Automatic annotation (TrEMBL):
GO terms for molecular function: oxidoreductase activity, acting on the aldehyde or oxo group of donors, NAD or NADP as acceptor. Gene3D superfamilies: Aldehyde Dehydrogenase, Chain A, domain 2. Coiled coil: none annotated. The keyword DNA damage does not apply. Keywords: Membrane, Transmembrane, Transmembrane helix. Signal peptide: none annotated. The keyword Ubl conjugation does not apply. This is Aldehyde dehydrogenase domain-containing protein. The chain crosses the membrane at residues 281-308.
Length: 310
């Protein structure tokens, strides 16, 4: 049976413009972000090597916050590789034997290769050849298609060289940034590189366990909880009860009190204050006027006596 809409629904409003789809907002982490680490010449090289390698080899080399690229200052690059080899020798990781051989090869050639070609070590459990040239850009070093567990250790001539290397053709921010250096260098590096989380001379162990945290502008990354209740809330205006100290705050915010005349300072109206410029004039008269008057007095009195005696 045919029925007219206006007859069936006399109070309905028919809109022919269509429906506006609601915006779907998702709270999910970005999977293409990478983790980088800086090891400056002012850092504790042994601590940095053990911390970074422990993060890379733990949890099956698949931790979301394990470093993908380590930039080491050229002055401590060879020493850093020695500590890497020592750590892998003592480590109980299942990838110890495969990685240790490649690190030992690079340790013997590190000095010549760094000076000639700026070599980097690529430590991958499944790769046959783990020694390669330093990539031209950070995009090549942090390729999304690289094998799991791959760790790039590249030398840098200075902090600015490392910043330029990471800023060339690579999307920022990074998932995490680990800096091993003194306070001034860490502050300089963190100001020029954008990361969702930055840690100086430390790497929280709780951060390595679990998925990457989603980006939330209302709250920084939590080390122990990836998703917090604050991320699922949105600020809205609400009616609140009167403040307990409202009677104390109302006089301060009162417009009448702000426009009230200032109380008198108690100084008589006929009193004339001596300002800055008046003080300068008086000092000048005292310095130059008094000697002139004294000189005239000393010279005039004998002159008058001399004229009277004649």
């Amino acid at each position: 049976m045919d029925c007219d809409l206006e007859t069936a629904f006399p109070t309905a409003l028919l809109v022919h413009d269509g429906l506006q789809a609601t915006t779907l907002r998702q709270l999910a982490p970005e999977t293409n972000l990478r983790v980088v680490a800086f090891v400056d010449r002012t850092a504790d090289v042994q601590q940095a090597a053990h911390t970074l390698l422990s993060a890379r080899t733990s949890f099956g080399t698949r931790s979301a916050y394990a470093p993908d690229l380590i930039l080491v200052n050229a002055f401590v690059h060879e020493n850093f590789l020695k500590h890497v080899e020592a750590f892998l020798t003592e480590s109980k990781s299942e990838y110890r034997d495969k990685i240790r051989v490649e690190v030992r090869k690079l340790t013997g050639l590190a000095k010549n290769r760094v000076e000639k070609s700026s070599a980097s070590v690529h430590m991958c459990p499944d790769a046959a050849n783990d020694i390669a040239q330093r990539p031209k850009t950070a995009r090549e070093a942090l390729d999304n298609d690289q094998e799991p567990g791959l760790l790039n250790i590249s030398p840098m001539t200075s902090i600015d060289d490392g910043i330029d290397f990471l800023s060339t053709g690579l999307r920022q921010p990074y998932q995490a940034l680990y800096i091993f250096s003194d306070a001034k260098s860490a502050n300089y590096i963190s100001q020029h590189l954008s990361a969702e989380a930055t840690f100086v001379n430390r790497m929280p162990e709780a951060l390595l366990l679990g998925p990457p945290a989603p980006f939330s502008p209302s709250q920084p990354i939590s080390i122990h909880h990836r998703y917090t209740p604050v991320m699922f809330t949105e600020a809205r205006p609400a009616w609140t009860a009167n403040a307990k100290r409202r009677e104390h705050t109302e006089p301060v915010c009162s417009l009448q009190q702000a426009l009230a005349p200032l109380p008198p300072n108690g100084r008589p109206l006929y009193e004339v204050s001596v300002g800055f410029f008046e003080q300068g004039i008086f000092i000048g008269l005292g310095m130059f006027g008094v000697p002139i008057l004294v000189t005239l007095g000393v010279g005039v009195v004998p002159g008058v006596k001399y004229l009277l005696l004649r």
